[in-house]
Specification:
1 helix
């Protein structure tokens, strides 16, 4: 569920990523990584923080999960 007001997409480049799912762009924040020693690679731990606005590329609709916003 997303709130109906717009906020600016965070400016920091590290930890913020965009992912397009079925034509909608979602904004994710990476807050950690898990290392698998047997396979020798890491997997990011990401949380959705919002959905990009279609009419304004620099803005997004914020997700309602308050725990995600405490991570940033």
């Amino acid at each position: 569920m997303y709130l109906n007001f717009k906020v600016e997409i965070p400016k920091q480049k590290i930890g913020i990523s965009k992912k397009k799912i079925k034509g909608t762009t979602y904004i994710y924040y990476e807050h950690g990584r898990n290392y698998y020693a047997d396979r020798q690679y890491t997997v990011p731990q990401c949380t959705s923080i919002g959905k990009a606005c279609e009419d304004d590329p620099g803005m997004m609709q914020r997700a309602t999960k308050k725990s995600a916003w405490r991570l940033i």
